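Handoff note, outgoing to incoming analyst
You'll be picking up this chain. Sequence as last confirmed:
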Amino acid sequence: MDRRDFIKTGAAAAASVAIVSCTNKKTSVQATPAKAKDGKMEYRDFLGDHVSLLGYGCMRWPMVKDENGKDIIDQEKVNTMVDYAMEHGINYYDTSPVYLQGQSEAAVGKALAKYPRDSYYLATKLSNFSVHSEEESKKMYYKSMEHLNTDYFDYYLLHAIGRGGVEAFNERYVDNGIMDFLMAERKAGRIRHLGFSFHGSQENFDELLALHDKYHWDFIQIEMNYIDWRHADGVNNVNAEYLYNQIAAKNIPMTVMEPLLGGRLASVPANIAKQFKERDPESQVADWAFRFVGTHPMIMTVLSGMTYLDHVEANVKTFSGFQPLTDEELAFMEQMAIMYKEYPLVNCTNCKYCMPCPWGIDIPGVFAHYNNAINSGTFAQTQDQKDYRKLRRAYLISYDKALPSVRQASHCIGCGHCLKQCPQSIPIPTELRRIDQYIEKLKQNTL
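Most recent structure output, in case you need it:
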């Protein structure tokens, strides 16, 4: 997909990225000036904590089959990765009771068990999405302590609030007395810092941020990357630039989820990857995305869902002797964001919140296969395209290999069960139909 003309247009339209600085000594930190790499992990000082700028998001760990064929976390590999992370200065670990089919917290607890409790920071969430009675919410809270082998949380989040605004917030946390309980737990020291992770519209966000006067949020977790900065996708998502500036204005530190959009910004379309490599042949594409987020001074830690040891090694390298982006580089990142939005990608981060599909469709798998074809430049577009027949055949064969027929997009009936689960607000049934129609055109050779 040649975008040469668009590159020229995008360059002319490049805009600088606004960064808000705060001066309160308790929570503020200024962006580190560019410097030569010194091999040491970058840290940010907020809320009395010395937090690694690279945090470990524990949502995408490797899975294996047990003797009964059930997917379970590969604890041995997790232990190896956490050992490497601890050895190289990563001290922030973010999990949830619902991650990885409910297995993540226990795996975190096992991997960190041999380390002194004050050598790392634990972050987990009250993920009471479906059942939010006082009894069940408290049960989840205490179960998290048990799984994580701890008697206190460093960072505790109300999980994925925003949709439905204050009314939904009240249903999950206020009407059942849970906010009073959490406030009391914070006062008692069993929650050191209380915050929330956000998914929703600007109106939803404004309502929840206004509650700061009542609840005094210690930190807030947002989705932020160079695409979502000014080009957030989905029905309800709001630009990260707005979120960042509003939160920073209240001097509240932030943690960041999806700095790579579920790995998509580590494997961008070939034309965009070429631009990054021309500017810095030594850097990986993912390095640019991480540096973009870390450049902003009110970011406390950048969560990366590192599935394999080589991911940990590469990311440690990026955040060791961290180099913030210059103003000119920030403008370049905006150009890349504009280019990226021109591609017909699905904004899926592979979080798997939409799974399981009641009709057995591998929703993230369908989207990943489609996006990978676009990113790799093997996307069949028209019959006039060079190598069209070869690309058409390759897509259809690889689709059948990657996804059993019963798990393909054609089986979507549009029930909408997945819609309320998706934090990206992706119109999933619509996108599945679009991909299925594309596949049918390939099969019928009618593109």
